[in-house]
Amino acid sequence: MIRINLLTQEREKPRRQAAGPLVGSGQKITVACTLILALAALGVGWWYWSLRKEESKLKADIATAQAETARLQALIVQVRQFEERKAQLQQRVALIEDLRRSQSSPVHVLDAISRSVPDSLWLTALDQKGRDLTLEGRCLSMTSISDFVDNLGRTGWFEKPVEIVDSQVENGQAAGADVIKFTVRAQVTTPAS
C-alpha cells in the first residue's frame, strides 16, 4: 500500500549535524588507538630485546660454567690420583713401621727363651708359624719342664697359658737317668711397655 500525503504543509526536514565534529572524534579515537597500539608494540619490542639480552648473558654464563666444570673435573681427577698415591704411601709407611717394630721381636723372643731355660733342660727344635711357637727339647726331670713353662710365661713375650703338648720318657739315654722328651706350644706377643 502506498501512502500519499495530501497536506501541503511542509515539514521541516531534520537537520543533520555537520560532519566535522563526528569526523574529529573518530580521528581522536583512531589516534588514541594508534598510540595504544604503538606503545604496546614498543613494550613488546623492549621486552623482546631484554629477553634476547638476558638470553645472550645466560649463554655466556653457561659457557663459562661449562669451561669451569671441565677445569674442575681435571682437578678432581688429579686430587683422586693424589689421594690414591697418598693412601699407598701411608700403607707403605705403616708396613715399614710395623716391620721396624717387629724387627726386634725375634731377637727378644730368642733372648726370653734362652733366659727361661733351667739347668738340666736343652732345646732340640724351635718352629714358629705366625704367632704360634713350638719348642721341642729334652730334660732330666718333669720339674725342669714346669720351671721352663713358668719362666716363659713370666717373660711377657708369650701369651698365657704356655702349654706342654707332649712329654715322653726315654729310658737309659743319659748315665743311668731317664730322659724326658717334651713339646711346648706358646703364642708370641709383644709385651706392654
Observed structural traits:
3 helices, 57% helix, Gyrase A, domain 2, four-stranded antiparallel beta sheet, 2 domains, 193 residues
Write a short abstract of this structure.
The protein has about 190 residues and is an alpha+beta fold. Helix content is about 55%, strand content about 25%.
How is the secondary structure organized here?
Elements: H1 19-103, H2 105-116, E1 121-129, E2 132-139, H3 142-154, E3 158-174, E4 177-188
Antiparallel strand pairs: 1-2, 2-4, 3-4
Largest sheet: 4 strands, antiparallel
**What's the rounded overall pLDDT mean?**
85
Helix content: 55-70%
Distance between the termini: 141 Å
Oligomer: single chain
Poorly predicted runs? none
Beta-strand fraction estimate: 15-25%
Rg value? 57 Å
Strand sequence of the main sheet, in spatial order? Answer: 1-2-4-3
Number of helices: 3
What overall geometry do the principal axes of the alpha carbons give? rod-shaped
The count of DSSP E runs of length 2 or more, i.e. the number of strands, is 4
SSE order, one letter for each helix or strand: HHEEHEE
Based on helices, strands and strand pairing, what is the structural class? Answer: alpha+beta
Count the domains: 2
Written overview of the protein:
The chain has 193 residues and is of the alpha+beta class. The protein folds into two domains: 26-103; 119-188, Gyrase A, domain 2 (2-Layer Sandwich), CATH 3.30.1360. It is built from three helices and four strands. The chain has helices at 19-103, 105-116, 142-154; strands at 121-129, 132-139, 158-174, 177-188. It has a four-stranded antiparallel β-sheet with strand order 1-2-4-3, covered by helices on one side. A hairpin with a 2-residue loop joins strand 1 (121-129) and strand 2 (132-139). It is rod-shaped and about 185 Å long. The model has no long low-confidence stretch (mean pLDDT 85).
